[in-house]
Design brief:
Layout (H helix, E strand, L loop, with lengths): L2 H6 L16 E3 L9 E4 L12 H6 L4 E4 L9 E3 L3 H12 L8 E6 L4 H14 L4 E4 L4 E3 L2 E3 L8 H13 L4 E5 L2 H6 L9 E4 L7 H4 L2 H13 L12 E5 L5 H7 L3 E6 L6 E8 L4 E7 L2 E7 L4 H17 L3 H10 L8 E2 L7 E5 L4 H14 L4 E5 L9 H12 L2 E4 L9 H9 L8 E2 L3 H11 L5 E5 L6 E4 L2 E4 L2 H10 L2
Parallel strand pairs: 1-2, 2-3, 3-4, 5-9, 5-10, 6-9, 10-11, 11-12, 12-13, 17-21, 18-19, 18-21, 19-20
Antiparallel strand pairs: 6-7, 7-8, 13-14, 14-15, 16-17, 22-23
Helix pairs in contact: 3-5, 4-10, 4-11, 8-9, 10-11, 12-13, 13-14, 15-16
The structure holds ligand UAG, adenosine-5'-triphosphate, 2,6-diaminopimelic acid and magnesium ion (MG).
């Protein structure tokens, strides 16, 4: 595509008299430049992409998009916001690939990864080739690719969509983080369905207030369509038991499908029966009353299943097919995953790293624990500090044996993170073991028949981030070794 054609998507009212080179690719990293690339300078949290513009030209860039003018040998197009320009240009350059996909976005504090996997299963069982974008990986027709973010930057995202389209994917399910919404990473995504799980405290380091956090998530619903679209229909699938839903209903012009347990909703779960291996409930919906059986446990899992049933219905899949798919789901890696090495106590690895998810996970464990409940929990460094005392308090309130340890300390001092956690504890005994491996070994040694150990916070993660180092660490592996060495 010619430069002038490409930038006409940004500023259609302007004409350009300068050079008009052929653009071979769009890049925001000087290290990925090929001959003829358009380099977009992004001001990052660590470095400023504008400082790499000269290098990008040396490497073959044919033009530059920047927030300030620079004296370079190739055309420099100045824009007010280069992140926004990147979203517009990536979408245009790659032929608006998200329009070729049936695109479902999921936002909310907890449950996005789980719900996206449930929806992917429902859609792929209906015979479609699927794609998935989220915290654990990008998956294209079953093949997994490594990721850095839950929701990638707009350029990476559009490239993934293009690859999906090229490989014959027709339906894509993606997690949409509040950071992504706030930064405009999803500008240019043509969503068909937007799903909301819940809103509880997290990421206040970034959003500062719960109101700002709620509004960031609301962008997914306001961007879903400002005109009523019936063909194809656009749907907002919303949790009626969460207060924030009221404002998302006001924000969207899409069709609304609500779900809930405690409040009346289009899809409501009643008579929830739980055992330690599964859950059954009655689903009341416009299609009648159906029994839903699943291998997942916890009230929060019922919400996740209801959200995915909503997305399935909005996609046009029959309720019977959806219920059949749900029954087969065995769970998502690192979410309430049991570690079984023949021991006579239970070990569960879970990704609960927010106050609400920790409370949910521990209340679920308590329902089935016959004796003591150990919880091994830490809090991530360079993340919301105000959740630390809250998580510690919840660990003490909902377990008999809380053990505070390190999660991913990142650039912070692990002992300071533990001190922040301790602020939340009043009178309840707890143990401090900063080394995560030691903490797991301690609990495994102390546990007796019928006890439960919940290892919270890192779920599927196979690393620990300490300072600048990435160390291999997998809670499931460590727990297994500890049990085998007992
Ligand atoms: C704080 C944050 O959001 N950082 C994101 C950001 O990185 P950054 O700002 O540090 O980038 P940078 O290193 O300063 O580089 C700036 C620019 O210079 C360019 N550059 C850099 C070096 C060079 O040699 N040449 C060059 O051109 C870079 O390509 C970039 O365009 O841009 C990167 C590329 O898009 C992201 O991967 C990265 O996410 C990091 C990994 C991160 O941890 N983000 C978290 C806060 C986040 O976004 N989380 C959410 C929510 C998670 C959830 O709750 O599920 C998410 O969606 O992941
Ligand atoms: N609907 C829910 N409500 C509350 N807690 C939940 C819910 N679903 C899952 N959880 C808890 O939250 C943890 C994380 O779940 P999941 O990975 O699905 O969420 P996520 O929103 O993708 O998280 P992240 O923002 O880190 O990507 C789970 O391990 C579980 O403890
Ligand atoms: N997506 C979340 C994951 C947190 C996982 C937890 N293990 C931590 O490192 O805090 C984040 O980046 O805030
Ligand atoms: Mg996730």
């Amino acid at each position: 595509m010619k430069l002038h054609t490409l930038i006409s998507y940004l500023q259609p009212y302007k004409t350009y008299s300068g050079d008009n080179p052929d653009i071979s690719s769009i890049e925001n990293d000087s290290r990925n430049i090929q001959k003829g690339s358009l380099f977009i300078c992004i001001k990052g949290y660590n470095v400023d992409g504008h400082d790499y513009a000269g290098l990008a030209v040396q490497n073959g860039a044919a033009a530059i998009i920047a927030e300030k003018d620079m004296n370079l040998t190739v055309p420099v197009i100045v824009v007010p916001d280069s992140k926004r320009a990147m979203a517009v240009l990536a979408d245009a350059f790659l032929g608006q690939p998200s329009r070729e996909l049936h695109l479902i976005g999921i936002t909310g504090t907890n449950g996005k990864t789980t719900i996206s996997h449930l929806i992917e299963k429902i859609i792929s069982d209906s015979g479609k080739k699927t794609g998935l974008i989220g915290t654990m990986y990008t998956k294209i027709d079953g093949k997994e690719y490594e990721v850095k973010n839950t929701t990638p930057d707009s350029l990476t995202l559009q490239k993934i969509f293009k690859q999906m389209v090229d490989e014959g994917v027709s339906s894509t399910v993606m997690e949409v983080s509040s950071h992504a919404l706030d930064e405009g990473r999803i500008h240019g995504c043509d969503f068909n369905i937007a799903v909301f799980s819940n809103l509880t405290q997290d990421h206040l380091d970034y959003h500062k207030t719960m109101e700002a956090y709620k509004n960031a998530k609301g962008l997914l619903f306001s961007q879903l369509g400002s005109c009523f679209s019936h063909n194809p229909p656009k749907f907002a699938v919303l949790n009626n038991d969460d207060e924030a839903t009221k404002s998302y209903i006001r924000a969207t012009a899409a069709h609304i499908l609500t779900y809930g347990i405690d409040h009346k909703a289009d899809l409501q779960a009643k008579n929830i029966q739980m055992t330690s291996t599964g859950t059954t409930f009655e689903l009341i919906s416009p299609f009648g009353v159906h029994t839903v059986s699943m291998q997942l446990i916890g009230k929060f899992s019922v919400y996740n299943v209801l959200a995915s049933i909503g997305a399935g219905i909005a996609t046009g899949i029959s309720i019977e097919e959806i219920i059949h798919s749900i029954k087969e789901v065995q769970g998502v890696s690192g979410r309430f995953e049991t570690v079984d090495a023949g021991q006579d106590f239970s070990v569960i690895v879970d990704y609960s790293h927010t106050p609400d998810s920790l409370k949910n996970a521990l209340s679920t464990v308590k329902q089935f624990a016959k004796k003591r409940v150990f919880v091994i929990v830490g809090c991530g460094g360079d993340r919301d500090r105000s959740k630390r005392p809250l998580m510690a308090e919840i660990a003490c309130r909902f377990s008999s044996d809380p053990i505070f340890t390190s999660d991913n300390p990142r650039s912070e001092d692990p002992n300071q993170i533990l001190k922040d956690m301790e602020e939340g504890v009043q009178g309840h005994p707890y143990k401090l073991i900063a080394d995560r491996k030691e903490a797991i070994y301690y609990a495994v040694k102390a546990a007796n028949e019928g006890d439960v150990i919940l290892i919270a916070g890192k779920g599927h993660e196979t690393y620990q981030l300490i300072g600048n180092q990435i160390i291999h660490f997998d809670d499931r592996e460590v727990a297994k070794e500890a049990i085998e060495g007992r």
